[in-house]
Amino acid sequence: MKKIFNSFLRKHGLTKDVSYEINETQEDILQLIKKNSSEDYYSSIFSVFDFTTSKTFISSIKKNHFKLRLKQKSFTLFKSIAYLEGVVVQKENKSLVSITIHGTRIMVIIMKGIITIILSLLFTLFTVAFLFSPMSVIEYLQNLFIILLIASIFILVPAIMARKGIKYLKEEFEHNIINR
Prior knowledge:
This protein has about 180 residues and is α+β, with helices and mostly antiparallel strands. It has 4 helices and 6 strands. It has helices at about 1-10, 25-35, 105-130, 135-180, and strands at about 15-20, 35-40, 55-60, 65-70, 85-90, 95-100. Strand 3 and strand 4 (about 65-70) form a beta hairpin. Helix 3 packs antiparallel against helix 4 (about 135-180). It is elongated and about 75 Å long. The two termini are about 40 Å apart. The mean pLDDT is about 85.
């Protein structure tokens, strides 16, 4: 089930896998991540605390695994929701950095699914009501417009922002860690 869910997220651009081969040691890369980040990782829900640090990322580093997200700045709310998980593996004199960038949290995706089901039921209800009651076409189209507006606000806009957050986090990671 998890494999199907992850393939769904990758297909729709809400998760992205990237690998880099770098001519540095594993320790150097992890030190660079530590240098560019505050090591007290917490969810973006508590991003009000981000203003207390001057670093670019908020991270958690354990052995060769790391998890990080962008520090919350002014006007970057949706960009700081994306986070990445990565691993650094030493191969001869090079290091392989494999990261998975997530556009949003799993709980948010589940809530979007529930909202989609509710909106689908409302659409079905209005369609049946239109067919079996004296509802006018204008009333039906008004109800349909409201459902589409709610769907775009709760589902489409956050999905677009998650994709932008993935792109922005990837660019920042490459700029500050990979191509510094």
